[in-house]
C-alpha cells in the first residue's frame, strides 16, 4: 500500500474505514424483546443498525460500541457485552 | 532595471505578494495585524491586484480560507502575528498534513501575558513543529525577496508545504528602508503559475486530509519530514536562482559571516542579525576572532550547513528571542541536539535576548562574547541558558 499526498482520497470512500475495531463493548439485540420501533436506527451515529427480513442487526464493521442504542431502547432489548479478542 | 523605493517593511511585503499574483488573500484585520494586509486590501480595492480578498472574523478562519483556497488549486496568502498566529495553529498543522503550498507572513511579536506589541520570536517558534517551512529575515529587502522565493519553494512538486516568512514586528514591519522591487515581467519569469497536483473538483470528488489508522499515520508524518529534508537542497537552488535574477544574494539556508578562523561564533536570526554583524565587525577590528551564523531557514533545520560553518570554533553563542519555559531556547536546543556526541564539537551556550522588544545592542553582544570566552577558558558553561539584560532585582518572591 502506498500513502497518498496530503491524505487525499477519492470522494465517497469512507466505507473503507472499518471503525468497528475501536469498540470495547458490543451491542447484542435480543429479538424476543424487540418491538421493532426503530429508535436504535435513529440514534446510531454510525448508521450501523440495520433491518433485514424484519430482523434487527448490527454492522460490527462500523459499530464503535457507544451504547446509545442500548440506552435508548424502550424495551431493553439491546445488551452491551464486553468485547474480547 | 532596478526600481529602488523607500518602503515601510509591511509595504515591501505587500509589493512582494502582489508580484506573486495570489488568487486569494484572507486576513483578520484587527490587532495583532500589520499594514501588510491593509496595503494588499487597498491594492485589490483599487484594482491594482486581481485577487479575491476575504476578510474574516478570526485568524483561525483566515488560515482556513487560504487552506481551502489552496486545496481548490489557488495560490493563497495570509499574514498574522502573535496571538493571531497561535489561533491559526490547528489549521497550520492540518494544512501541512494536507500538503497545501500557501505562503504566510509571521510578523514576530511577543505573546501575552503580559500584553505587548513589541517583537520577539515566541509566536512563530511555537509553530516550529507544525510542518510549515520557516524562514527568518534580517531586512525589508530580504523580506521582499524571501516572500517571492517562498511561493516557488512552497509549490515545488517535491515539497508542497506551507511556507511562513517570519519578520520582526516594528523593527522591520514599521520602519522604512530602501527596497528594490521586481518588475512584474521579471517576477512572472521566476514564478510560473501554480499547477496543483490535486485540487477540489466537482467532476472528480476527492476528500482532503482523510482518516489514517495506526498502521499508516507514521508514514504520513514521515513524508512531511522527508519533504522538508528534500527541501533543503531545493530551497538553496531557488534562492540562488532568484539571486541571479535580482543580483541580491542573501545566502542559502544560512549566511556565514566572517566565520573563517573564528574562535567564538554567534548564531542568531531575524533583524538582530544586523546589530550582531556590526558588533562582529567591531570585535574583528580589535583583533578578536569572532564570526556569525545567521539562520535564514529554521525549518527544515540546516544543521549540515551550520556544522560546516562552525566547525573548528571553540564556542557557539546562540542569541535568541524565544524560550521554552522550564527548559531553554529553541535554537540552542536544536543545535545542541545535533552536536551532542559529535567529535570536536564547540561548546554551545544559549543566550536569551530581546524578549518583548528588549534592546539588544553592541554592548549586549560584547557581554555575550565575553561570557563565551570565559566559559571556554574555564571549560564549563557559566549560568546557562543566560538571560542577557535581565534585572533579577525586579523579580518578586516566587520568581
Describe this structure in words.
The complex is a heterodimer of chains A (85) and B (399). The model of chain A has no long low-confidence stretch (mean pLDDT 94). A two-stranded antiparallel sheet of chain A has the order 2-5. Chain A is α+β, with helices and mostly antiparallel strands and 85 residues long. Chain A has a domain at 28-80: 2-Layer Sandwich (Alpha-Beta Plaits). Chain A is 12% helix and 24% strand. Chain B has 399 residues and is of the alpha/beta class. Chain B has helices at 9-19, 35-45, 59-71, 82-97, 122-125, 140-155, 184-190, 217-246, 272-285, 303-310, 330-339, 362-378, and strands spanning 3-8, 24-27, 52-55, 76-81, 103-108, 133-136, 163-168, 176-181, 206-207, 254-257, 264-268, 290-295, 297-299, 315-320, 347-352, 386-387. The radius of gyration of chain B is 21 Å and the shape is globular. The mean pLDDT of chain B is 96. At the A-B interface, β1 of A face β9 and α8 of B.
Relevant terms:
heterodimer; A: 85 residues; alpha+beta; Alpha-Beta Plaits; two-stranded antiparallel sheet; two-stranded antiparallel ribbon; elongated; B: 399 residues; alpha/beta; Rossmann fold; 2 domains; 7-stranded mixed sheet; 6-stranded mixed sheet; 12 helices; 19% strand; globular
Secondary structure elements and their pairing?
The complex is a heterodimer of chains A (85) and B (399).
Chain A lengths: L8 E2 L14 E5 L9 H5 L5 E4 L2 E4 L9 H5 L5 E5 L3
Chain B lengths: L2 E6 H11 L4 E4 L7 H11 L6 E4 L3 H13 L4 E6 H16 L5 E6 L13 H4 L7 E4 L3 H16 L7 E6 L7 E6 L2 H7 L15 E2 L9 H30 L7 E4 L6 E5 L3 H14 L4 E6 L1 E3 L3 H8 L4 E6 L9 H10 L7 E6 L9 H17 L7 E2 L12
Parallel strand pairs in B: 2-3, 2-4, 4-5, 5-7, 6-7, 11-12, 11-14, 14-15, 15-16
Antiparallel strand pairs in B: 1-8, 6-13, 10-12
Helix pairs in contact in B: 1-2, 1-6, 3-4, 6-8, 9-12
Amino acid at each position: 500500500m502506498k500513502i497518498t499526498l496530503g491524505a487525499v482520497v477519492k470522494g465517497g470512500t469512507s466505507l473503507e474505514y472499518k471503525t468497528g475495531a475501536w469498540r470495547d463493548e458490543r451491542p447484542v439485540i435480543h429479538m424476543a424483546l424487540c418491538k421493532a420501533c426503530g429508535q436504535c436506527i435513529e440514534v446510531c451515529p454510525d448508521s450501523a443498525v440495520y433491518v433485514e427480513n424484519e430482523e434487527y442487526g448490527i454492522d460490527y464493521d462500523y459499530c464503535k460500541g457507544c451504547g446509545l442504542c442500548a440506552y435508548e431502547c424502550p424495551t431493553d432489548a439491546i445488551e452491551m457485552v464486553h468485547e474480547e479478542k | 532595471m532596478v526600481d529602488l523605493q523607500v518602503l515601510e517593511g509591511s509595504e515591501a511585503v505587500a509589493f512582494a505578494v502582489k508580484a506573486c499574483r495570489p488568487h486569494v488573500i484572507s486576513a483578520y484585520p484587527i490587532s495583532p495585524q500589520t499594514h501588510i494586509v491593509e496595503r494588499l486590501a487597498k491594492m485589490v480595492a483599487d484594482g491594482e491586484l486581481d485577487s479575491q480578498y476575504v476578510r474574516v472574523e478570526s485568524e483561525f478562519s483566515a488560515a482556513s480560507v487560504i487552506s481551502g483556497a489552496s486545496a481548490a488549486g489557488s495560490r493563497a496568502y495570509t499574514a498574522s502575528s502573535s496571538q493571531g498566529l497561535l489561533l491559526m495553529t490547528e489549521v497550520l498543522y492540518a494544512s501541512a498534513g494536507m500538503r497545501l503550498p500557501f505562503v504566510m507572513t509571521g510578523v514576530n511579536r511577543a505573546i501575552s501575558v503580559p500584553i505587548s506589541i513589541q517583537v520577539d520570536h515566541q509566536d512563530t517558534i511555537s509553530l516550529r513543529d507544525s510542518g510549515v517551512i520557516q524562514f527568518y529575515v534580517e531586512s525589508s529587502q530580504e523580506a521582499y525577496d524571501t516572500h517571492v522565493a517562498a511561493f516557488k519553494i512552497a509549490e515545488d512538486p517535491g515539497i508542497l508545504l506551507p511556507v511562513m516568512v517570519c519578520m520582526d514586528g516594528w523593527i522591520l514591519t514599521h520602519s522604512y528602508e530602501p527596497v528594490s522591487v521586481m518588475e512584474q515581467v521579471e517576477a512572472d519569469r521566476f514564478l510560473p503559475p501554480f499547477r496543483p497536483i490535486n485540487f477540489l473538483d466537482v467532476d472528480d470528488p476527492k476528500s482532503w486530509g482523510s482518516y489514517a489508522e495506526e498502521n499508516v499515520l507514521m508514514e504520513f508524518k514521515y513524508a512531511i519530514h522527508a519533504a522538508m529534508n528534500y527541501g533543503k537542497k531545493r530551497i538553496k537552488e531557488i534562492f540562488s536562482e532568484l539571486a541571479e535574477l535580482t543580483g541580491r544574494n542573501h545566502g542559502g539556508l544560512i549566511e556565514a559571516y566572517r566565520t573563517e578562523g573564528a574562535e567564538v561564533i554567534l548564531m542568531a536570526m531575524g533583524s538582530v542579525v544586523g546589530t550582531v554583524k556590526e558588533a562582529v565587525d567591531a570585535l574583528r577590528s580589535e583583533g578578536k576572532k569572532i564570526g556569525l551564523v545567521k539562520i535564514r531557514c529554521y525549518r527544515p533545520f540546516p544543521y549540515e550547513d551550520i556544522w560546516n560553518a562552525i566547525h573548528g570554533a571553540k564556542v557557539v553563542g546562540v542569541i535568541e528571542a524565544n524560550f521554552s519555559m522550564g527548559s531553554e531556547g529553541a535554537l540552542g536546543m536544536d543545535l545542541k541536539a545535533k552536536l551532542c556526541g559529535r567529535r570536536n564539537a564547540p561548546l554551545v551556550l544559549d543566550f536569551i535576548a530581546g524578549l518583548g522588544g528588549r534592546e539588544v545592542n553592541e554592548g549586549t553582544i560584547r557581554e555575550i562574547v565575553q561570557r563565551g570566552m570565559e566559559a571556554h577558558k574555564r571549560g564549563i558553561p557559566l549560568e546557562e541558558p543566560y538571560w542577557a539584560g535581565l534585572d533579577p532585582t525586579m523579580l518578586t518572591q516566587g520568581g
